[in-house]
Amino acid sequence: MTISFDSYPSADGLWTDLRLPFQPGTSVAIVVEHGIVRWIGSPDSMPKDFSGLPTHEGGDALVTPGLVDCHTHLVYGGQRANEFAMRLAGASYEEVAKAGGGIVASVRATREASEDELFSSASHRLQSLLSEGVCAIEIKSGYGLALEHERKQLRVARRLARAHGVTVRTTFLGAHALPPEYAGRPHGSRDYIDLVCNEMLPALAAEGLVDAVDVFCERIAFSLAETEQVFKAAQALGLPIKLHAEQLSDMGGAALAARYDALSCDHIEHLSQAGIDAMREAGTVAVLLPGAFYTLRDTQLPPIAALRAAGVPMAVSTDHNPGTSPVLSLLLMVNMACTLFRLTVPEAIDGVTVHAARALGLQETHGTLAVGRPANFVLWDLQDAAELAYWFGQRPVRTVVRQGKIALGSNRT
User: pLDDT tens digits, residue range 276-287?
Assistant: First the structure.
């Protein structure tokens, strides 16, 4: 059952006795009015104008911006646990796909599911992420691969935003895989990309269902030329682009995406120095997806040191999907980004806040605690910021303030 976000209490008032991460011993207060952060600072220097506000006692909690999950495939039918077993028995990602599994298996289940069924299952998954402090999330389509079913996924994503009071950025991923009805055709891939560019994307954009456009550019998916065709169609409609890039091989997709000022390039285990340089020049975010890396038992690490040296911002996300990253914990991804990819704790926390927001084009409203921004922040029952990366298997959230409302917990005194 989904509770309407309208029923949650307002977060307006004075939030006291809070600690900022990476500033030991520093106590801060936050003033929220009409859902907007109006003041942040030492309680001793708070303007008298705010002294009469209702008080929310922070209880010496650690406070961070609300978390941002910037790459998910949250809306889909069915599940693919059998493929997990196949990979354990030795099958590769490509072998699973050629056997009729992979993305195409989720396409079948998603097409068979009703919009209400997809909404119900996605709501349960979303609740797990929200309970860990997620205040903004990206949700991709890409399991419909036909106009009516891509529309169905994107409509569910919009419904989730309204029902749960969370910022949702929708991404059209029609170029995720070749639909089964196009397989075996002499020009099946070309014909399908024409459909994506000339019919599906314009229709869905006209209905207000698309915030960004993505492509799976890979040897088992779509070529550089096909990817650029989609980028041009998105550009003509004024839509930003993203890219599944360099996950299984170096296709040169990141450099291509950077030429189109991509918001982000995601996965990037096989990213080259040329791709890094192009991303740096374009201001494109590198989105790290340790859940897929872990599940696929990959051995090619993303080029973290080179990205760090180049100053390319690194985001971290769950990549929640039914096949390669059935992850419903962004905090677990923070831990994995540190343990598997060797990010520092500050890098990992920035990766699920400020850089993740930038990867969605939400840097003006999410990812940082600042005066004039919507109130999206989390109070944690932790003593040290490193604990956000250290613990896994528990949820140390005390209170979540999302879209100016107390979405979880209550600290009013």
Answer: 999 999 999 999
